[in-house]
Amino acid sequence: MLTTLLAQASAGGAGILGQVFLFGSIILIMYFFMIRPQQKKQKETKKFIEEIKKGDEVVTIGGIHGKVSSVEGDVVYLELDRGLKVKVEKSAISLDFSKKSPSTK
């Protein structure tokens, strides 16, 4: 009877170790496929917003295409047409759409 209890206890310990390994591998997979790419994208977006300068062609999150007229702190003035300028926050400029936007001259 004692040997039966010891055999059951050792088998139960291996099951717990397998579950811990499975749980750890799921967390690792989630990190590499979800969390890490998101952090990389946030860094790229932050760098893009910090490097906006006069003359850049950008697209806002709302879909407005324009050319940067001037930058003052966290505010960007976009020139949509000759004489028509719009004041937007830097955070309203989209990295994804600005990269895809064909430059119109």
UniProtKB/TrEMBL annotation:
Q: Which GO terms describe its biological process?
A: protein transport
Q: How does it sit in the membrane?
A: Single-pass membrane protein
Q: Which UniProt keywords apply?
A: Cell membrane, Membrane, Protein transport, Translocation, Transmembrane, Transmembrane helix, Transport
Among Pfam families, the record links this protein to:
YajC
Q: Which InterPro entries match?
A: Preprotein_translocase_YajC
Segments passing through the bilayer: 12-33
Where does this polypeptide localize? Answer: Cell membrane
Q: What is its main location?
A: membrane
Alphabetical GO CC annotations of the entry are: plasma membrane
The reply on keyword Protein transport is: yes
* Family annotation (PANTHER family): SEC TRANSLOCON ACCESSORY COMPLEX SUBUNIT YAJC
Family recorded in the similarity comment: Belongs to the YajC family.
* NCBIfam families tied to this protein: yajC (TIGR00739)
Instruction: Tell me what this protein is called.
Output: Sec translocon accessory complex subunit YajC
Q: Which organism is it from?
A: Algoriphagus boseongensis
The lineage is: Bacteria, Pseudomonadati, Bacteroidota, Cytophagia, Cytophagales
